Amino acid sequence: MGNEHAGPQTKGVKVEQLARIDLGAEIEGLAGRELRMRLVTIEPGGVFGPVHDHKGRPGLVYILQGTITDHRDGVATDYGPGLGWPEDRNTLHWLENRGSVPAVEISVDIVSLP
CA nearest 59: which of 36, 42, 93, 92? Predict the structure, then answer.
């Protein structure tokens, strides 16, 4: 992937871990994986990048405040409060806040334990 496809680097982003569950203790076959919930704030002009995928770490995003622009497949889609999107193995994207107020999302995903 060349630099023109990498998207901008992360800036103006705050991530707060809200909760986590060790899935190995809950579901057979999921040792080494956790379900986590995070509160992500992207300041005006902020970027959650560079381009990244979600292979092996599916998730869901829900917007609480502001508008987040999701860049994927050459298309920029705006999501405002009450909307969200899935992040599956086919997701390749980066996010930005083009607005004038902080954009706040809840992100829930399954990841490998640190």
Answer: 36
